[in-house]
Amino acid sequence: MGKQDTYKRDKEGSEIGEIIVDRDLCIGAASCVAVSGGTYELDGENKAIVKDANVADDEETKAAAASCPTKAIILKDKQGKQIYP
Ligand code: SF4
């Protein structure tokens, strides 16, 4: 497990409570940005950061995580249980 940035999500009606980006796994492929540009952007080190954890619906949030080729995006539910990958 690499260095992980955790972003709290408190979107009403969402089952997702946290979006986590593993910075060591992220290779800057930007698939997540392509799927959910409202949620993600790349920082100066070409690593994904979450600029808004609440903007996307669950479907888009899961699709963005699933698009990551290195599975650098981890999703947890509101009880802290990992739901992806
Ligand atoms: S898709 Fe994965 S590897 Fe690519 S920028 Fe997003 S988190 Fe990083």
Automatic annotation (TrEMBL):
Record's signal peptide: none
Keyword DNA damage: no
InterPro entries registered for this protein in UniProt: Fe-S_cluster_ET
GO molecular function terms noted in the UniProt entry: iron-sulfur cluster binding; metal ion binding
Domain of life where this protein originates: Bacteria
Keywords: Electron transport, Iron, Iron-sulfur, Metal-binding, Transport
Keyword DNA damage: no
Official protein name in the record: Ferredoxin
